[in-house]
Amino acid sequence: MRITRTLTAALLMLGLAAAPALAEDEEPKDGAPTEAGTSFRTATEIEQGQDATASGSAGDYLYWSFPADTGQRPTVKATVKLPETHAAQTWQVDVYDGLRRRQSCQYGAQTRTAAADAPSVEVACVLRTVRSWSEPWANDPLPGTYYIRLTVTNLSTGDLGLPVDASVRVDSKDIGGAAAVDGSLGEPLVPGVAVKSEAEDEDSAVLSSIDPDDGWSSGWWSDRWVWTAVGGLLAALAGIGGYALTRGSGRPTRA
Amino acid sequence: MITRTRLASGACALLAALTAGLAFPAGAAAGEPTGEDAPKVNLVLDVSGSMRAKDIDGQSRMAAAKQAFNEVLDATPEEVELGIRTLGANYPGDNRKTGCKDTAQLYPVGPLDRTEAKAAVATLTPTGWTPIGPALLQAADDLDGGDGSKRIVLISDGEDTCAPLDPCEVAREIAAKGIGLTIDTLGLVPNTKLRQQLSCIAEATGGTYTSVEHTDELRDRVNQLVDRAADPVVTPVPAEGADRCPDAPTLKSGLYTDREEFGKQRWYRVDVEPGQELRASVSVGADRAVNPSYGVLLRAVTVHGREIVRGEAAGNGRTDTVSTGVRYPKADREDDPTETVCLQVTHSFSAASGVKTTPGLPLELTVDVVDGPSDSDDVASFGLGRGWWLLGVLILTGFLAGLVWGWLSRWRVSVWRTN
Description:
The complex is a heterodimer.
Chain A: H1 2-18, E1 44-45, E2 52-57, E3 62-68, E4 72-81, E5 89-96, E6 102-103, E7 111-114, E8 120-126, E9 144-154, E10 163-174, H2 193-196, H3 224-247
Parallel strand pairs in A: 1-3
Antiparallel strand pairs in A: 2-10, 3-9, 4-8, 4-10, 5-6, 5-7, 5-9
Helix pairs in contact in A: 1-3
Chain B: H1 2-22, E1 40-46, H2 61-75, E2 81-87, H3 96-99, E3 103-110, H4 114-122, H5 132-142, E4 150-156, H6 167-177, E5 181-188, H7 192-205, E6 209-212, H8 215-230, E7 237-238, E8 250-251, E9 254-260, E10 265-272, E11 276-285, E12 293-302, E13 307-316, E14 321-329, E15 339-347, E16 361-371, H9 388-418
Parallel strand pairs in B: 1-2, 1-4, 4-5, 5-6, 7-9, 8-10
Antiparallel strand pairs in B: 2-3, 9-16, 10-15, 11-14, 11-16, 12-13, 12-15
Helix pairs in contact in B: 2-4, 2-8, 5-6, 6-7
Transmembrane segments (chain A): 225-245
Protein name (chain A): Secreted protein
Signal peptide (chain A): 1-23
């Protein structure tokens, strides 16, 4: 009886630990940016879950940056509203990490061609899961700033400079313990972080002042703790069971 | 979830405190954000004869520009120093030489007096030639001084009529000379040739090109550009990389800019102490027509020439920049001396035929030397396990251990009893 109860409790714990993986969505906040930068240096900072918009001209390179933390798998979606009449044009979204290394997309139409006079075009990129650590020789996504670059890669000269409206949104799926690797970075991969810690003036411009809502995760917690602990507990119970089997029921038989 | 958040924020606070404590005491690092000087914007307006054409919302281009200017002047943020320069406003004659010198400062760059500026704009009447190149040169001179961000907004309705001075090359030279000067261009009811010329000018300086067909588009765009100038941005520090590592300049954490010619390499040095991590990223901009395949390579090399780590990126098609980065955590062994890491930057852009190859392509380099390199002892977090297989193995092992223990103790009891 007791064993059953303990087991139930253990399973419940497991369930609780798995729960955070489900709900990470945020409500869209007011005050989402309505501008985009034009280079890495001037990228507009956005939060995950915000619908950022920007007006620009076909041919502009639009830049945004967002924070992504350990265990998240960000999805970048961008929609471009095109002018009423235009020729076919190809739009592309690229994502770069805090070291300005291009990050691959696992899924999503990163490049898409809008047919002539199509009202809008949508591009998307699902990144790999952000790891807390990777070897310096690897290109794995690490916690820190990520840059989005949205631009047209192929357009006719006649369409150059025509007004377009772009909107981007980043959402993340929490992958949880399955992606929990050992080790962590001394500092998140935020450009200018070394300069920022020295600068005393709060208002002065920095390369990236990005910070997730609840701060960077310490990388200490993962549901692996629960799995391992529950495993240990079950092993102990199985041990008791195995021991009990050898004793039969009740008192040891007299020799 | 709450526990996780608290833990995370606690750890972050600790981390922040540690970083603050450990922050190296070096004085002002190069590339430290400046931005104390006011941002400057110079609006350059084409007042050539063709501005008389009545094709923007039923009014003449000039009237549309004046209306847009009035609204822009009203909306200009306080901190922005704004000036207005005209081209082709004064000389109505046919002498090309005189016509091509016709550019004048209508309102000097400085704190804005809205009434005066508006009065000055009201006097304009479409007159002469379109000397874009000379106007840009003068406009850049107007903006001289201070290290705030600088922006030229060029509004024109016709391509440059003063060849052979190519305004595109002029723009590139201005960009190579001044730091953080951007030229944005707007074409009023443009034809193909004007589009190409103006977008070439914009591209040369990292600016943007917009086609304008309505007054409100003009107003919105100029407003947007002026606002952009007011955004605080880190100004990069000029650095001049060397051809080889021993001659290279030593950089501290910060943002740097340089020029790299086609087929050349640039070397920089960074000092990394044990227990610190070097992070460097480099972007090479395509500020002119380049061939469609390109790449960039950033290598971190020891002073003896051994490669530590490299970052590489390649691409094809239309681009503004190609970038890559490297990370080098130096192990924390106390007896190690400070290591000098050489950074080598090469790019594989090639200029399209007929495009000048000097000055070199703009290069932006960020260097961050942060504390605490990271290490990992295991693939999994703290070496912990996860999954049903783990549970199965643990249960099985536990069960077997229980059995063995049980049998062992039964055997011991029976041995004890028999004795």
